[in-house]
Design goal:
Elements: H1 2-15, H2 20-30, E1 39-42, E2 58-62, E3 68-74, E4 79-87, H3 92-101, E5 104-112, E6 115-125, E7 129-137, E8 141-144, H4 160-168, H5 172-184, H6 190-198
Antiparallel strand pairs: 1-8, 2-3, 3-4, 4-7, 5-6, 5-8, 6-7
Helix pairs in contact: 1-2, 4-6
Length: 205
């Protein structure tokens, strides 16, 4: 049964590129591979530079040299900067997926002694890839980017308060992705309410 489930996960990885990295990780776990290249520790206390006069940023590149890559950077200013890139050519299939999802968002998690923080990185569609960034306060803990890319429907059960840090932590292009997704969401969707609280509805109501 376990082998069959792993095969199903692998097939999902070939059918939907938004599910690929999560499906590959799931197949690996089902067959006994427990390690993940999409996990890293976070430590706000940074090492000193060679001169000893300043803190050095700490950068981790997560992934397995596949089409999906995540980069984390802890800055001297106490910020966690996350950069996500999914290599995916602009094809009719990709456009159909984006239309069906109403926007692409990568869930990431920071598990800390004070609790678990969830964020979503809005992915902007470019010619040969989807990419996005997130900039939030860093806390000591473990960063994980193991879940599949989700769409606006996947955010329906998330509270506006939980979405707000992801909206506030994105750049201008990412905020356009959030606003476009809100325009496609039903009335009362938490994303619409979160954007109103942020003060940037972008047409959402």
């Amino acid at each position: 049964m376990t082998t069959a489930l792993a095969e199903v996960a692998r097939r999902l990885a070939t059918v939907n590129p938004f599910l690929r990295h999560a499906a590959v990780l799931a197949a690996g776990r089902l067959t006994g591979a427990t390690s993940s290249g999409f996990v890293t520790g976070l430590e706000p206390a940074l090492p000193k530079s060679a001169s000893g006069t300043a803190d050095r940023a700490v950068v981790d590149r997560l992934g397995d040299d596949g089409p999906f890559a995540v980069r984390t950077e802890i800055t001297p200013g106490g910020r966690l900067k996350v950069t996500v890139e999914l290599a995916l050519e602009a094809t009719p299939e990709r456009e159909r997926l984006l239309d069906a999802y109403g926007g692409a968002f990568l869930p990431v998690v920071v598990a800390s002694p004070g609790g678990t923080l969830r964020y979503w990185v809005a992915l902007e569609a470019r010619r040969r890839w989807l990419s996005g960034t997130l900039d939030v306060p860093v806390v000591r803990g473990e960063f994980r980017a193991e879940d599949a890319v989700t769409g606006v429907w996947g955010l329906a059960g998330v509270s506006p308060d939980e979405l707000l840090p992801s909206l506030a932590g994105t750049h201008r292009a990412g905020l356009r992705v959030w606003r476009a997704a809100a325009d496609l969401s039903p009335a009362g969707h938490p994303l619409r309410r979160a954007l109103r609280r942020l003060g940037g509805e972008g047409g959402a109501s």
